[in-house]
Amino acid sequence: MATHAPHVLHRGNRRRIRFDEHLPVDHRLNRFYRIGAGLMGLVLLAFGVLGLVDKVGFFDTAGDTVAGLNTNGALSVLSICVGLLLFVGMVIGGNVASTLNMVVGVAFILSGFVNLALLDTDANFLAFHIQNVLFSFVVGVLLMFFGMYGRVGSALPHDNPYWRARHPEQPDRERQQRTRVHALMLQREKERKARELNGPAR
């Protein structure tokens, strides 16, 4: 029983400091993820609504132009659904918003490549034109940026909650090191004051 105690304590400590479901509400990364999801969701929602207003055929491969982009009923409905999904991520925030931004961003980039291959074919059911492909790439990159910021990288600051979750023991080691350095500085300060009180040696 005693041999398992350190392991249990280690797992308990890791669970307490792990970055679980969401960021603190007032954390700047949480606000960043929410702003990113909300902004891109708003763009997609507006594009989808404008497409439905024009009453383009659902799978009309010719489509119609909305805000410089080609669209049809299917693409408009899909844009609204994705926009609403991003709004849900904005409301939830935290890891959910970050992960959702990354996943949807990758999906947009893949969609750009797939629809690029389907241009000028009968399988172009979303009525993509080249400007739609470029738009899909841009939105995908922006969403990935909004999702990965402060979460992925080799130079994250040590107060970053994602870094702390990946290195659960490191904050304790750094705290102990700061304590030792502080104690050493206090000791040297005491020795210096003692020398000043005793005066120069005769």
UniProtKB/TrEMBL annotation:
Highest classification ranks of the organism: Bacteria, Bacillati, Actinomycetota, Actinomycetes, Kitasatosporales
Keyword terms of this UniProt record: Membrane, Transmembrane, Transmembrane helix
Protein name per UniProt: DUF4383 domain-containing protein
Transmembrane segments: 32-53, 73-93, 100-119, 125-146
